[in-house]
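Service request form, structural biology core

Requester: graduate student, group of Dr. S.
Request type: structure prediction, single chain
Budget code: on file
Notes: please return the result as structure tokens.

Sequence provided:
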Amino acid sequence: MVNPALCTGCGICVASCPRRLIHLVPEGPDAHVLCSSPEKGAAVRKVCGHGCAGCRVCVKLAPGAYVMADENLASRDYAQPPPENAAAVVAKCPGKCVRVMGGNAA
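Core staff response, request fulfilled:
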């Protein structure tokens, strides 16, 4: 995880991550999906206690703000405004991979 207090948004960490797990996100508090694994839920949970299981809870609670990046991974659509019910999305995420974070990267 990138420390938002130290992040300048330069993108060096994104370019240097060999597994392409780091992404730049808009600055400011928002509920981000902190998982980049495209694997199915069971495979993700074997290696990570906070991975996206692809359950679509966030998509159901805040359609448009959250989308399925592929069949197994939810993502935040930053072209859409933050959902008004972000706290509910964070609370209902079974993998606890949706979290409110500030800063430039997650």
